[in-house]
Design a protein that fits this description.
The strands form four sheets. A four-stranded mixed beta sheet has the order 1-2-6-5. The chain has two domains: 2-203 and 214-286, no CATH class; 312-411, no CATH class. Strand 3 and strand 4 (132-133) form a beta hairpin. The chain has 412 residues and is an alpha+beta fold. The protein has helices at residues 2-8, 14-30, 36-49, 51-54, 63-77, 85-101, 107-112, 149-156, 178-191, 216-233, 241-254, 289-307, 327-341, 350-364, 367-386, 393-402, 405-411, and strands spanning 114-117, 120-123, 126-127, 132-133, 145-146, 174-176, 192-196, 199-204, 266-274, 277-286, 314-318, 321-325. The chain has 17 helices and twelve strands. InterPro entries: CRISPR-assoc_prot_Csx9/Cas8a2. It comes from Thermococcus waiotapuensis. Pfam families: Cas_Csx9. This is Type I-A CRISPR-associated protein Cas8a2/Csx9.
Length: 412
Amino acid sequence: MLIEALAKYPYEGLTRELLSLGMSWIVMNAGIEPEPRELADAFEGALRSLENRAEVHTSKMGRNDRESFNNVLKVWFNRSAPETYGELFELVIKETTKLIREGRLDPRESLKAVRVEKDGTYLGVDYNGETSKPPGKKVTADHYAILPAIIKQPEYYERQSGFLAPTTGGKAQIRLDPLWFSLVALGFFTGLAGYIGGKYYLITKPGIEGLWPYEVEDVIVNGLLAITEAGIKGRVSLSTEELYEMKLAMKLAEENRSIPEEVYPVTLHLISLEGQVYTELKTVQLDLSGLSRYLNAYVERINALSTGGVPVRVELKEGKETVQKYPLWALAEIAEKELERGVNGDGEMLAYIFVKDLYRAINSGRKELIEDSVFRLFRQGRALIEGSGRASGELRKVLRVIMWQGHLEVLL
């Protein structure tokens, strides 16, 4: 049932990736051919597992979306549209689960109904709040929800299009019934890795349906959720791809999380409101396996030194508080600050250059390149500390710990 439904969806891209993530929860909790009661249970179980995602701050809906969803939610559930996209997705999942339990929405009929018309694509049945029927020759568009702008517009518009001209035709008018909308919403919560600085970070696993039914749970629970949780907890934002991956892998190492290698690669979608339009700023393929192996070993060795009575941490100010950080973590934060303010003094973005070099060396799998990057940092750092060059007190403090012999041995 689910395999056939996804196969009928006629487009590639973000929406398909979110649908496949949402359907993966059903497969995990109820199998590929669930009965209605099992499907309702699967939705409830998934939402419980994703409860913290529903609480993550998301943007307010624009006027057009708010009016459109207000109308369709009145038809479906006799409910008004909430303010934010996160609240909207949570409401739709909960109310749709009730419809399925009450027998007012037939999941099998819904998943079979995919219709491509001149005015767009209709996913699911025509549900009027009381009864449902397969879409006929004249589809009642008001009984379907439009795809939310934060999902539709990144596929509909290209960052490179000078006037944000539509890049596709019918694809832009995707309309969903309550069940299909709920699957997209589950996929959104699963892939959400943060809403930071007005930008959405969504991490997906294209082709995850190829892992149904047996391998998908490990990939979702021990893989994708761990990665996105690291992004949310660490508020990891993208300045450069190297720093983003390093900071994600650092957060995972900090929490002693090992990600199954079959999880990779995953895809990061960086989405931002540009003017009045949500636009996909970047699409990046991520593979943190090499970084995680190195950084997990780094944390293990630093902690072993600390247990042996040799504390290897850097104390830094964060607002009014003093916090202790792993030296490499502190250097990565300084690297981000260097990027924000540009070259300043004789440090010449030393922290960023080292972190970037180390990132490339680790991913190459070649120990001699790691050694080269560490020795280069040592030479340049010593020249900065012992000379009369200008650099921030924070950088000097971190470099002294980084360059301590015991720490250099850990890096190597």
